[in-house]
Sequence to fold (249 residues):
Amino acid sequence: MRQKLRNFGLIGLAIVLLNFSQAKVFAQVPSSSNYSVPESGFTSGSDINANSASYNARTSVGNLGIGQSESGSYIGLAGIITPDQEYAELIIPITTVNMGVLNPGTPGVGTATFSARTYLNNDYIIVSLRNPPTNESGRQIAPMTTSATFNSVVEQFGMNMVANTSPATQGANPSRQPLDNGTFAFGIAASGYDTANNYQYNAGDVIARSVTRGYGETNYTISYMLNVIPTTPAGLYRMEQDLVLTATF
Fold:
C-alpha cells in the first residue's frame, strides 16, 4: 500500500517573556542625620536628579577617570554616573516566527531578538524552558539534543545564538552595548549554541550567559531551524518559548 504524503502544517514560534529576574540590592549609601551621598563622584560637577515638570536628567561633567576595576570582593565603575542598585532585566519583544508550509528536506528558518540589561556584581544565565514545536495531537518535532548541522533526511529542530550561512544566511552574534569592545556588558552565546551553522535544543538548556560581572546591555538573536521528513505527521506545530534570566551568585 502506498502512503500518501501530506504537506506539513504551518509553524508559529512565539517568544513570550514570562519571567523577570532582578538582583537583590546590597549597595550602601553613605549618610548621616543631615546628609547623604547617593553616588560618590570626583568630577567638575554632577547631578543625579536634575528635574523639571517634563524631564529628569543625570549629568556628569569633567570625569577624571573612566573604566572598570575589580578584585575578588569588589567592583567599581568609574566615569559617568552609574546606578547605586544592582539589577538584571530581560527585554523581549513579543515575536511570532511563521515558517509557513514546509516540504520534506527544505528547512524552515527564522529569527527573533531579545536583550539582557544588567548592572551586577555577579554573572547571569538565560534559560529556554519550553518543549520543541508540538502539533494539535501532542506530537513533537525531534529536537537536536547535541550541536549538529542541518541534515535534509533527518527530522530536526534546533536553534543557535550566532550568525549563520547554512542552511540559510540568518542570525547575528551577540552585540554588547554601549560599546562592543570588551569594556561593557559581557553576554555570550552558551556552549552548544555558539557555533555557526550548528543547531541544538533541549528544554531547560542555558542558551546565553555572561562571562564576567559588569554593566551594560547585550543584544541577542536566536536563529531557528526546523526540518521535516516524509513520515512527519501533518499539523499545526507551535512553540511558545519562555526565556528566564537568573543572576548567579
